[in-house]
């Protein structure tokens, strides 16, 4: 040992634990898969639905409150699922049936978004044509239907993935 070398000092305030640290993995190719593209489309279209509704006086109509609830709920859940798949957390927690979880999330989102889109479309006539509320509600209804199609596509992709895992067992 060199004479000038200083031995490593341990901080007495930090207990020594056997905790391994790792960096988050990032799946660069996930966003080019069908699942990744559909999740991104759901995030963007869903965000447009709740932004367009949130910028109006939607709270006067309970039907639009329902559409806002569905849009925000599934937007948050979809963002969480996207982060889980993007960072590879689903590979590190194999106890969770991720394919079944995705299938349930996507099928429920498809059904509830379809109801919300129909309700939003039927509520457009409550606003005065050409006014801010009318334009935003009509646009949000359009994007709600588009988001429904994205979730339907994700439901199909999730079903195929779930069916493949069931066949492999």
Structure keywords:
169 residues, mainly alpha, 5 helices
Descriptive account of the structure:
67% of the residues lie in helices and 0% in strands. The protein is built from five helices and no strands. The longest helix is centred in the C-terminal third of the chain and has 37 residues, at 132-168.
Provide a brief overview of the structure:
With 169 residues, the chain is mainly α. The chain has helices spanning 34-54, 62-87, 89-92, 98-123, 132-168.
- Supply Rg: 23 Å
The average pLDDT is: 87
Residue windows where pLDDT falls under 50 for at least 5 positions: none
Biggest sheet character? none
Helix content: 55-70%
Question: How many H/I helices?
Answer: 5
Please state roughly what percent of the residues sit in beta strands, choosing from under 5%, 5-15%, 15-25%, 25-35%, 35-45% or over 45%: under 5%
Strand pairing plus helix content: what structural class? mainly alpha
Number of strand segments: 0
Q: Give me the strand/helix succession.
A: HHHHH
**How far from one another are the termini?**
57 Å
Sum up the overall morphology in one term. Answer: elongated
Oligomer designation? single chain
Helices and strands, with pairings:
Blueprint lengths: L33 H21 L7 H26 L1 H4 L5 H26 L8 H37 L1
Helix pairs in contact: 1-2, 1-5, 2-4, 4-5
